[in-house]
Write a structure and sequence with these properties.
Layout: E1 2-7, E2 21-25, E3 30-33, H1 40-46, E4 54-56, H2 62-65, H3 67-77, E5 86-90, H4 94-105, H5 113-116, E6 119-123, E7 129-132, E8 135-141, E9 149-155, E10 162-164, H6 175-178, E11 183-187, H7 206-216, E12 220-224, H8 232-240, E13 246-249, E14 255-257
Parallel strand pairs: 3-4, 4-5, 5-6, 10-11, 11-12, 12-13
Antiparallel strand pairs: 1-2, 1-14, 2-3, 7-8, 8-9, 9-10
Length: 260
C-alpha cells in the first residue's frame, strides 16, 4: 500500500508546493483524496490521471478542491482522451458548489453538466461508504468552519488502513473512527498560541496531531497542511513530543509504503 503526497501546504500554496491532495494506491486501485490548487502537476508525475479509479473530497474549501477545475479542463481538452468518466465523490452540497463554479467559469446559465461531461459526479452520504476498486472509504465529521469529513481508507488485503483527518480541530472525536490505522495523515496548521476556543477551533496543532496518532495506535504520522512560514521542522519536532512513532512531513512526491 502506498501514500504519495501531491501537496501539503496549508490554506495557500507554498514555495514549490500546492495545497492538500494525496494519492492512495493499493496493488489494484488508485484514488486521490482532495484536489487542492497546484497539485495536478504533481499527480501527473506519478500516475496517468485518466486511469484514476476515483477522487474523494473531504470538504468544499478552495484549498481542497480548486484543481478539480484544472482537471476538468485537462479531461475535456487533452488530445489523449480518457476511456470513460472519472468517478468524483463529493460531500453534501458538493453538486451545488460545482454548479456555482461552472456558472462562474463558463456562463451564468451553465450547470453541473460542465463537470459531468468528464466526471461521474456523486454526492456521498457520510453515514455510508464509498467503494473504489478494492478500497473502501468511510467518513467521520470533524470540527471545522464548514462541514468537513475525515476519511478512513480501508484496504481489502488487511495491510493496514489510512486515516486522513482533513481539516479538523481537537474537539472532533476521531479516536474510535481511527483506532488501529497504520498511517495517520493529519493536519497541523494551528499554532500553540491560538486564541480560539478549544471546542470551536478548526485546526490541530502539531502536538495535537501527535497525540491523536498516539491514542489511535498509528505506526506513522504524516503531518500536513502546514505553512512554511511556521517552520515545518519545528512542527515535526513538536509532533514527536507527543508521538514516538515515525513522523514525516508531507511534501510533494513524498511516499510512504506499508504492508502487513
Amino acid at each position: 500500500m502506498k501514500l504519495t503526497t501531491l501537496g501539503g501546504s496549508a490554506a495557500g500554496v507554498g514555495t514549490g508546493q500546492g495545497c492538500s491532495s494525496y494519492l492512495v494506491q493499493s496493488d489494484a486501485s488508485s484514488l486521490v483524496l482532495d484536489m487542492g490548487p497546484n497539485t495536478l502537476l504533481e499527480l501527473r508525475k506519478h500516475v496517468d490521471y485518466r486511469q484514476l479509479d476515483g477522487i474523494v473530497i473531504s470538504h468544499l474549501h478552495a484549498d481542497h478542491i480548486l484543481d478539480l477545475v484544472a482537471l476538468r479542463y485537462m479531461l475535456n481538452y487533452n488530445p489523449v482522451s480518457a476511456q470513460g468518466l472519472l468517478p468524483l465523490h463529493l460531500p453534501p452540497d458538493g453538486i451545488a458548489t460545482l454548479e456555482r463554479i461552472a456558472a462562474a467559469y463558463e456562463a451564468p446559465e451553465t450547470g453541473i453538466e460542465w463537470f459531468t461531461s468528464v466526471f461521474d459526479v456523486q454526492q456521498y452520504d457520510p453515514a455510508g461508504s464509498v467503494t473504489i476498486g478494492d478500497l473502501t472509504c468511510t467518513f467521520a465529521s470533524t470540527i471545522h468552519y464548514i462541514p468537513c469529513w475525515a476519511i478512513r481508507v480501508h484496504f481489502s488485503d488487511d495491510s493496514g488502513d489510512l486515516l486522513y483527518t482533513a481539516d479538523t480541530g481537537p474537539a472532533a472525536d476521531l479516536d474510535d473512527f481511527g483506532s488501529g490505522v497504520h498511517v495517520l495523515l493529519a493536519e497541523g496548521m494551528a499554532r500553540d498560541d491560538s486564541d480560539e476556543a478549544f471546542e470551536e477551533r478548526g485546526h490541530l496543532t502539531p502536538a495535537e496531531a501527535g497525540e491523536l496518532a498516539s491514542r489511535i495506535g498509528a505506526h506513522t504520522l504524516v503531518l500536513t497542511h502546514l505553512w512554511e512560514e511556521n517552520d515545518p521542522a519545528d512542527s515535526i519536532r513538536r509532533a514527536t513530543t507527543a508521538f514516538n512513532g515515525n513522523v514525516i512531513r508531507a511534501i510533494p512526491g513524498m511516499e510512504v509504503a506499508w504492508q502487513r
